[in-house]
Amino acid sequence: MLSAEIVRACEQAMKEGSSSFYHAFKFLPSPKKEAVFVIYAFCRMIDDAVDEPEKSIYTLEELEYCLENLDRVEDHHFIWPALKWLFAHFPLTKNPFYTQISGQRMDYVKTAYQSMDELEEYCYRVAGSVGEMLLPILHDQPNHLAMKSGIALGKAMQIVNIIRDVGADQKLGRRYIPLDIMTKHGYTQAEFEEKVINWPFKLLINEMIYIADEWFKEGLKYIHTYPRESAVSIRLAAGYYREITQVIQENEYEVFTKRAVVTNTRKGKLFLQLTN
User: What CDD domains does this protein's entry cite (predicted)?
Assistant: First the structure.
């Protein structure tokens, strides 16, 4: 089993990185709970290497190299013994982690998206891959239908992240909202750059929320095949993320300067609704 110190470090990374994810998965029994903490902590490091390189202790290339050579990497950071434990105790491969890295690498070269098809590929790589990582931990007998469903759930959550983080991503010089959806609703690049929130902007955000909801439905389609404790965590994660879109609408679609936050009170109400 992992040392208490390593578990605490991975758990803290999840607490700080996504309270919604943490509140959803902290109820899992051991060792599934610890495995989710490890996966999140490593994915957080991959993301930080791209978005906050000045704060990251590893570059993306170093993380990829260490993952490739995990058996030979010294345990000079808590993530390496954690990953060694993960792969030794659960039937998952490194492939989805490489997919995750490839998706984050896209941010180096692609700062704007022209179509929803392009964005879906990105969402698969950076978030659908997380569904692939989690499935062997959360499901006792995963099959291709459950895998497809897990990928859809990850993509749905990434769309929510994109909507919520429009302003933060704009500061990094990125526009994930596809140009074809903007054009469809009569919203221009100039308006985007000027942070204009008008009716066309609300329509395009609503369309992206609809796309996310369709993927959420796909992601929950086979929830009945999961062990009960895993199913509860997945429902909570989906519910918390869906609630973010509700907060965005309540905030009058102000996503340029205001981050939508689901309060603990709202999480508590959702918990009671989704676990009864």
Answer: Trans_IPPS_HH
